[in-house]
Amino acid sequence: MKLNILIVFLLATVSVSKAQNTYRAVVRDRSTNENIAGAIVQLNGSTNGNSTARDGEITLNNIPDSIQVITISCIGFITFNDTLFFPFNEQRIILLDPESKEIDEVIVEGTRSNKSIDNIPTRVEVLNEEIDEASSMDPSKVAHLLTHSTGIQVQQTSATSNLANVRIQGMDGRYTQILKDGFPNYGGFSGSLSIMQIPPLDLKQVEYIKGSASTLYGAGAISGLINLVSKEGDKDETLLHLNASHVGAFDVNTFLSRKIGKTGFTLLAQRNTHKYFDADKDGFTDLPQLTKYNFNPKLFFYFNSRTKLSLGATFTSEVREGGDINLLNQQTPESVHFYKEKNDVNRVTTQLKFETKLTDRNTLIIRNSFNIFHRGLEITPSYTVGKYNFAGEQLSSFSEVAFTNRTKENVFITGLNFYSDEFKEQKLQSTILRNEDHQTFGGFANYIFNLGKNVAIESGLRADHVMNAQTYVLPRISTLFKWTRKLTTRIGGGMGYRNASIFNQEAELLGYKNVLPIDKNKTVAERSIGCNMDIGFKTTLGEHFFLNINQMFFYTHLKDPLVLVDTNGTSGVYHFVNSNAYTQSYGAETFFKFGFYDFVLFVGYTYTHVSNITNGKEVEFTLTPQHSLKGDLLYALPGKWRIGLDYEFKSSQLLSNGKRTRDYWTYGAIVEYTYKNYTLFGNVENFTNFRQTNFESLRSTPYNTPQFTQVWAPLDGIVFNGGIKIRL
To answer: What percent of the chain has pLDDT over 70?
Structure first.
């Protein structure tokens, strides 16, 4: 009896062991034949699964006899079902097909080619998911959003009116070109106000091209280009956004988007107000008194699958006042209380874009924009000098016709454009009007082509003729090397220029008082040559993890930089001249992004060295930290929670008086909770309350006011804001 039981047990064991099989496979990318790590391999109808190793190999045990289906899936590839009859003992070679459109594929518009960010040789950084988060922090302007990229510094230029410009790779803000949907309407007299007036709520993405980009859109993009891309009226969306802060801000924002048949429209309407705020109680505003209205309608006509037309306009009105709080409270100026700065701004902008596909390969695009910008600047530098006014109207237009020929891999773009920029000063107190007029005819060509499967080249050439000046020829080239599906290198460089103008930060600090007009016979345009190189690595680590690392190096050489000098040394009358020095900027940016389940960790480090060099002697740029670090940790549960922590570090900065500032850190946090169509949000900035005024007074010579104070750290300290978003 015992013998029979033993025999039955052994037979059962053998039977079970024969019924359990092993599945062995190597998973590869069909297009490149590279092994795929992190692909999920699972036995259908069970929890039996695993992910492929670095060499693409996978082993699954305990596969029962009979017909079984093994599913192989990976982000960016079409899922494959391998059906086998077990027992089966051979190793399988599984070739996965890339998806025709990769998940979260980002199409870049700023380069005109409309290729995906992964396939374009020009190095482009894109923000899209960050826009909604940044609008919770500050829905009135894009300034906060622009700080989400390494190598970007929003530099406050006024201690009382909170004006600012964007500095890329340490270069002054006048060398950054800002576009809205490819239209260059934000420069000149409006430069220090632009990022304080453009709202983020109607944006779908922000594109950065760092380094010389004048070949793409003409003068101004010496250190880089920022293209703000608006949403189109191709889907229904209704958003009501209310925001308030403990420092006096209150914002009412509405965005609408509809598509009805072949017609679509978007509408952004805003009212932003801010009471003055004095964080250090010194009697001067650290945040100005502000009332701003913004109205931005846009129409889209989709005539057929080949042709569409968009018409848009922007209407902005703003009054911004800062300075002595007694004057803001309508008290009469006196010898102790006199300093005030007021900006009264009105802007009207129109945009037209017509696009038609002539054939499957050929596309014609016509663009036109017109911009009227009026600004009145009133400043009282001293009680004895009294009130000074500078005002004027800037009229600019941009017209372009471009032709694109597109094959499967190659893109050829050529076009002509005309850009006019005219400033007329309103005659108030000036004896000499500082009028300016720049008219530029340009032609350009850009060609993107592949050399084999792993090398793509983008070559460009622009020729700009500035009326009554000279012609500038601007070549540019970029190369993309795809070493593997995950590892890439980009190398690029080009030339740029900027027309001589009084609208620079140095003149802005003076309120343009006693600044003479540009002498066209004695000044020339600032010219540059720049290059950059980066190495990028992207990979997924299983189904719930991804890793993105990028290391970039940059260099810019600027010839004939404009500097503001006293005409006779002590006259108090100033004019711009070309310096005998040259400016150089070089450094490196390190980008790290790691996603794990619902968490995303971002870290960005920038090393920047900017200096003027005269006869071999090097002078460091002011307000340029050599080391900066920024990052955040975000937890996002779609449709429910978003919790983020962010930080920023800036190393010591040199001031114009020769002193050096201290290193400092700032920290922030944001929480959002969504229930159905409602999102409640709360945000705190600089919760350690680090302020420049903790270490020094903002009063500066010669008038013992904040007018000439250089801002190197936050002035407002800790800021709480919160509100609600309602989506219908």
So the answer is: 96
Nearest to 210 by CA among 183, 156, 171: 171
3-state DSSP helix/strand/coil % of the chain, to nearest 5: 10, 55, 35
Which H helix or E strand runs over 231?
A: none
Q: Give Cα separations from 461 to 148, 390, 469 (angstroms).
A: 31, 39, 20
Do 602 and 593 touch, CB atoms closer than 8 A? yes
Question: Please, are residues 404 and 365 in contact by the beta-carbon 8 Å criterion?
Answer: yes
* Mean pLDDT along residues 714-724: 96
Quick one: which H or E segment has residue 215? helix 214-217
Judge whether 625 and 594 are in contact, CB under 8 Å: no
- Class of residue 227 by CB neighbours under 10 A (exposed 0-12, middle 13-18, buried 19+): buried
681: buried, middle or exposed (CB in 10 Å: 19+, 13-18, 0-12)?
buried
Answer yes or no: is pLDDT of 40 > 90. no
What was the pLDDT predicted at 393? 97
- Among all chains, which residue has been given the structure tokens 């280009």? 225
Q: What is the pLDDT of residue 30?
A: 80
**pLDDT, tens digit (0-9, with 9 covering 90-100), for 281-290:** 999 999 999 9
* 49-63, 132-146, 475-489, 563-577: range with highest mean pLDDT: 475-489
Which domains does the chain possess?
18-96 (2.60.40.10), 125-227 (2.170.130.10), 228-727 (2.40.170.20)
CA distance 604 to 258: 38
Listing DSSP states for 235-262 in one string gives S-EEEEEEEEETTSEEEEEEEEEEEETT
C-alpha distances out from residue 236 to 166, 239, 265, 557, Å: 33, 10, 9, 47
Cα dist. 364→405, 429, 602 in Å? 9, 49, 40
Residue 190, φ and ψ in degrees, nearest 5: -95, 0
Note the pLDDT of residue 19. 55
Separation between Cα atoms, residue 249 and residue 236, nearest integer Å: 29
The answer to whether 243 and 721 have CB atoms below 8 angstroms apart is yes
Please tell me the distance from the alpha carbon of residue 437 to that of residue 424, in angstroms, as a whole number: 9
DSSP bridge partners of 527 = 497, 559
Give the residue from 239, 235, 258 showing the smallest Cα distance to 674.
Answer: 239
pTM of the model: 0.86
- The band of 2, judged by pLDDT with boundaries at 50, 70 and 90, is very low
CA 411-420-512 angle, to 5 degrees, is 125
Query: Dihedral sign, CA of 707, 713, 717, 723?
Result: positive
In the block, residue with structure tokens 């009135």: 140
- pLDDT confidence of residue 1: 45
What pLDDT, on a 0 to 100 scale, did the predictor assign at position 68?
Answer: 87
Contact present, 341 and 384 (Cβ < 8 Å): no
Q: Is the pLDDT of residue 509 over 60?
A: yes
Residue 40 pairs in a beta bridge with 51, 73
**How far is it, in rounded angstroms, from Cα 538 to Cα 469?**
47
> Cis omega (within 30 of 0) on the bond before 139?
no
Residue 328's nearest CA partner among 294, 292, 291 is 291
d(CA 460, CA 414): 9
Q: Judge whether residue 613 has pLDDT over 90.
A: yes
